[in-house]
Amino acid sequence: MFATGLDWAAWAVAVPLVGALLAGLLPRLGPVLGLVFGLLTALAVAGAVMGVWHEGPVRAGLGGWDVPLGIALSLDGLAALMLAMTAVVGLAVSIYALGYLRSSQTRGKFWALWLWLWASMNALFLSGDVFNIYVTLELVGLAAVALTALSGGAAALGAAMRYLLVSLLGSLAYLMGVALLYGGYGVLDLAALGAAMEPDKVSRLAAVLMTVGLLMKTALFPLHVWLPPAHGSAPAPVSAVLSALVVKASFYLILRLWLDVFPVLTVPGFELFMGALGAGALLWGSLLALRAARLKQVVAYSTVAQLGYLFLVFPLMAVTPGAWQAVVFFALAHACAKATVFLAAGSLQKAAGHDRLAQLGAVMRKEPVTVFAFGIAGASLVGLPLTGGFIAKWLLVDVALQGHAWGWASLVLAGGLLAGGYVFRVLGHAFGRGSVNPDHRPVPAVMVWSTLVLALVSVALGFAGAASLELLALHGGRT
Amino acid sequence: MNASWLLIFILMSSLVPGLLIFFLREESHGLRTALNLGGAGLKLILVGYLLLGVQRGDVYELRAVLLPGVELVLAADSLSLLFATLSTLLWFVTTIYAVGYLEGSPNHSRFFGFFSLCVSATVGIAFSGNLITFLIFYEILTLATWPLVVHRGTAQSLRAGRLYLAYTLAGGALLLAAMVWLALLAGSGDFKPGGYLMGLEQEFPTQLKLIFAMLVAGFGVKAALVPLHSWLPRAMVAPAPVSALLHAVAVVKAGAFGIVRVVDDVYGLTLVLELGLDLPLMAAAVITIVYGSVRALFADDIKRRLAFSTVSQVSYIVLGVALAGPLGAVGGLVHLVHQGLMKITLFFCAGNFAETLHIHKVSELKGVGRRMPLTMLAFTLGALGMIGAPPLAGFISKWYLGLGALQMEQHWVLAALVVSSLLNAAYFLPPVIRGWFGRREEPWHDEHMKHHRFETHWMLLGPTLFVAAVAVAAGVLAGMPYSPLDWVSLIVEREYAPTGGGL
After folding, report:
1. Chain B 419-448, CB below 8 Å of chain A: which residues?
2. Would you say residue A292 lies in a domain?
3. pTM score over 0.90
4. What is the ipTM of this complex?
C-alpha cells in the first residue's frame, strides 16, 4: 500500500518511541541506537512533510478508530513544519551528543530520555484533541525535567526541581481547562471544539487556565525565572533541545488553540496584554543577557528575550491575520540558531573547563570553527542576512507595517539591535588579547562539525522563506 | 551555460578563497598569498570581461525568489561596473600591501579570510539589482568588516568595533524598516534609471518623503554624513590596509553608492525634484563637506586627519547626485572613483610612514621627504589631487560639480565648493610642506622593517606608487576612452536619456 503523509507521521512517533525503549533496555548501545533511530525518525518526518506538501492537511484515527473512541492524528502545514524543525535540530544534537557525552553513566540515560522526548514532541505536534495534548504535554515535561537533572550536581538538581514544579503546575492548569471544556461541550477534538465554541464564562475561564498553564511552560516573562538556571546548567545537547524545541512545543499549543479553538473568545485588550508581555520579555531578557557573566547564561537569557517575539503574534494577528506565519517562521529560525549557539557554547565550555566569559578569549581563539558557527547563528539571532533570522525579521516588520503597527515594528528592530549587543559582546572576546590557556582540551571533531552544519542550516533557512510560507498556508481544512 | 553566471563567478572568486583561507594553518604563508592573489587576479580578469560585455549592451541578470514578491536580484549595469571595477582593482593592490604590512604579526588567516569576505560583499553591493539585495550585501559587509576593525584586539580597537557596530546595525535596522515600507507601497522593484516610483507621489507624498529620509539616514551612517559620522575616525585603530579599504572602496563608498542608487534608480531624479528632496540632501552634503574639513584641520594624527577628510570628500558624491542634473551627476559619480584612488594613496603613505619610521602625527613629518622621497611624492600627488589642483583627478570632480551647480542654478553650492577647497588646502598643504622643506634635528627611530634596496618594504612601496600613478592618470588622461570620466559620462547619458538632458 502507498504510504500517506499520515502513515509517515505515525512512524515519526513510533520510531523514536521504540528507540527509547531499546536504549533504556540496552544502555550500552545508546549512541548507536540514538543515531540509527534519529536518522529513521528524520526520514519518517521527511515523508510526512512531503505528504502534506502534495496531499494537503489530513487527519485520521489511529488504526482506523476515529474520535471519540480512538486517538486522532492530524497533520497540516504547521504541524509538519514543527516536525521538520524538531528533526533537523534533533539530528544535529544527536550527532553532537556522540562526542559530548563521554561518561558512560549519563550516556546510558541520555539516549533513552532524549528519544522519548523526541517521540513525545512529535506526538504533541500531531495530536488533534485537547486531552491527548495533555498527555503528550506531560510526557514532554517529564522527559525534559529528567534530562535537565542529568548532569547531577546540586545546581542541576535544584534547577530541575524548580522546572518540575513549574511544569506540573502548568500541566495542571491546562488539565483543569480541558475538564471545563469537556464539561461544557462534551467533545475534546480541536476542530469540533473550535466549531462549537461560544464566548461564555466557562469557556473563557478554560481558555485562561490553559493559556496560563502553557505560558508557564513556555517561560514567557514574567514566568521565565525557572528557565535560565535549567537551560544554563543542563549538559549542552540538553540545553540546545530545551531552548530550541521544548519551549516551542508549548508555544505551538498556544498558537494552535488560539488559531483553531479560541478565536471567538478574544476580548479587547487581550492582544495588547500579550504583546506587552512579549515586549517585556524582549527587553528584560536582552538586558540580563547583556549583563550575564557566563556564556551559557547569556544564551539562556537570550532565549527568554527571543521568546518575547513569539508573543507578538497576538497583537500582530489583530492587525494582519496572516501574521502567525511570520511568527512561526521566526520560531523555526530561532530554533536552529539557538541550538547552534548552545552547542557552540557547550564546546567552548568543554574546551576551557568553565564558561566564564572574561576568561574564555584564549579558548575561543583556539577553536575558530566553533566560534565561526557561533557567529553565523548569532547573526541569525540578530537578524542579519543571509540567515533565517533575517527573513524572519523582514516578515515580522512586513506584517507589522501592513497593519500600520509602528510600535511593534520598532520593537522587532530594537530587539535585533539588543541581540546584536549580546552576540557581539561574546564574539568580541575572541578578538581580545590575552594569555594562552594552558589546560585547553581540544573539542572532538564530531562536535565541531555538527555545530557548523547546524549553523549552515540557519543560512539555508535564509532561502527557505517562500517554501515555508507555502507549507504553512496548508492549514486547517481537516477532514 | 547562461552568461549571467559570470556574476556568480565574480562573487565566488573572492568568497571561495576567503573561506578556504579561514581553514589554513597560520604558517602556510605561501599558499595563503597564492590564494589571495589568485582570487584577486581572477576577479580582475572576470570584471574586465564583464566590462566589455556591458559596454556592448549585453544584459546580465540572475534572480531567485526569497519570499513571495521579494526577489534576490543580481544584475550588472554600467553603474555597478563603476563600483565593481574600482573595488576589484583596489582589492588587488591592497592585498599586496596587506601581505607586506602584516608580515610578522599574528592571525593572518583570520585577517585575510574576512578581508576577502569584505570584498565579496562590496562586489555584491555593486551587482545588487534591487534594494533588498543591496541590504543583504550591505549587512554582510558590516559583519565582515567588524573583525577587521577589532583585529588588533586592544581595548581601544574593541571599543571602536562596538561603536562601529552600534552605528551600522542601527542604520541597517532603519534601512530594513524603510525597505519593507517601500515594498508595501510600491512592490519590490528592480533598480532602473529614472526609478520605479513614478505615479505614487500623488497618493503617498508624505510617506515617500519619510521613506527617503530613512533610506538616506540608513545609508548615511556608512557614508559618514554628519551627524552620523563619529564611528569613522574611531575606526582608525584598524590596520592601515583596512582603513584604506574602508575609506576608499568598501564601507564608506557602499553608503554613498546606496544613496546614489536611491536617488537615481529608486526614486528617480524627476521624483526627487518633484518632492523637493534635492535641497535637504544637498544641505546635508554641504554641511558634511564643510564640517569634515574643519575637523580635519584640527587633527594632528595623520590617520585621523585623513578620516575627517574622508567624511568631507565622500559627501561630494552625495552632493553630485543631490544636484539632480547631468553635470552634477558626472561630478559626483566620477568622484566615487577619484576619491577612492586618491584616498587609498594617502592611506598607503600614512601606513608607510607609520610602519617604516613610526610617524603617526603631522607634526612629526618634518624632513621625511629626504628619507622617503617616493612615498612623500605619492602623498603630495594625493594631497594635491584632493585639494583639486588641475589637472589632477580631484580637479575634474570639482569642475563638474561646479558646472552642475551652475546648471541647476544653485549658486550657493559653488561658494561651498570654494570654501571646502580652501579648507582642503589648509589641512593638506602643511604636511606636504613640512615633509619636503622641514628639517629633522634628531635621527629617525629604529627602523623595524627589513628593506635594503628601497626606502621601505617593496610590498608597501609598490602598491603606493601604483595607486598614485593611477590616480594621476585618472586626472591627466580623463579625456581618454575607458577613463573614469568617460565611463561616468556613459552612465549619465543612459540615466538622462529618458528626460532628455545632455552633456
Report:
1. none
2. yes
3. yes
4. 0.91
